[in-house]
Amino acid sequence: MNKVRAAVVGVAGERLDPFERDLFRRLPPAGFILFRRNLADPAQLAALVAELKALFPGRWVPVLVDQEGGRVQRLRPPAWTGWPSAAALARTADPEALTLRAAFGLGSDLAAHGIDVDCAPVLDLAVPGATPAIGDRAFAADPARVARLGGAFARGLALAGVAPVMKHLPGHGRASADSHLELPVVDASIADLRATDWLPFRALANAVPFAMTAHVLYEALDPRRPATLSPTVIGDIVRGEIGFAGILLSDDLDMHALQGPVPERAAAAIDAGCDLALQCGGDAAVAAAVLAAVPPLPAARLDRLQAARPAIPPTAQPGLLLARAREIAAEVGAHLA
User: Fold this and answer.
1) pLDDT given at position 1
2) What is the pTM of this model?
3) How far apart are CA 149 and CA 29, in angstroms?
4) Is 197 among the catalytic positions?
């Protein structure tokens, strides 16, 4: 019987403690996500990732990180290579080619440490006057440009053996509040959302294996529930109009945009149509409650998750990957100078 739970969780520190090892063997998560608290140096990171994957021999255990470049990158200098923001890449002379190249280098850096899923690219639009929580994480205001550059970023990651995650469906760009702190409310009409915000996601719906929801309430779509918890938004828009059929993750369920106990949020996200509930905080007791609250992944979804495993390039030796990342970072930096 499949025991893999429909959740991706964080871990507390730089290595697993006995409670976490026992918890993850009893209630195995679908995968893990890492944050700054988990990162000391490259050798420690590679050892932690190997420890996480070794818990479940025989199946792919995705290890995720938020490594967009710019403000949002968990692996930072001086221990790791730094990467520019989406907006900085978009301002260059040949942004599509440079975005692909930068993502290939960034992905090589992740792959060298065993990280195989990156929560990027951001396909939200850069909307004037909206919350700076998105800001330079967005490539542009024009949906077609966002689709082109986001697609280039996704292809670059995949070439390095890292699966991309497009975010935040069905679009966080119009939000006037930071969903880390409170629930944003968007009052745009369905016609306006359809004509702009959804276009980058529709363009890449069949090209990217993972996507992440937005903790945003869209009054025209569901006046009571944010997208993450709304069967209407997920079923009619994300799966329907946008046409995304891959693995759908919630955004972090610890964020203050949502109300109620975190395990209840996790169960509600799965009930709404998310494939995986994402709980990032690293508190093992909360992770235990979330893993108990969500159901096992149905066999078909587990198969779909395993099928999303990125292809490992033939030049996947860590030393070569790190050298490539440093070389590409210098090349990209020269174009930004």
Assistant:
1) 56
2) 0.96
3) 32
4) no
CB proximity list for 191: less than 8 A, separation 6 or greater:
none
Q: Output the CA angle 189-190-195, nearest 5 degrees.
A: 100
Collapse the DSSP code of 15 into the 3-class scheme (helix H, G, I; strand E, B; otherwise coil) and give the result: coil
φ, ψ dihedrals at 28, nearest 5°: -65, 125
Q: What is the CATH number of the domain that holds 260?
A: 3.20.20.300
Tokens 């009619």 found at: 236
Token pair recorded at residue 250: 């919630």
Options 142, 178, 180, 236, the catalytic residue? 180
Q: How many CB atoms lie within 10 A of CB 18?
A: 7
Q: How many CB atoms lie within 10 A of CB 89?
A: 27
pLDDT tens digits, 256-287: 989 999 999 999 999 999 999 999 999 999 99
Total tally of structural domains belonging to the chain: 1
Domain hosting 218: range is: 5-336
Are the C-beta atoms of residues 248 and 214 closer than 8 Å to each other?
Answer: no
Catalytic residue among 66, 251, 252, 254: 251
CA 255 to chain centre: 15
Name residue 211's beta-bridge partners.
166, 248
Number of H helices, E strands in the chain: 12, 12
Nearest to 51 by CA among 36, 38, 35: 38
Our answer to whether residue 251 is catalytic in this structure is yes
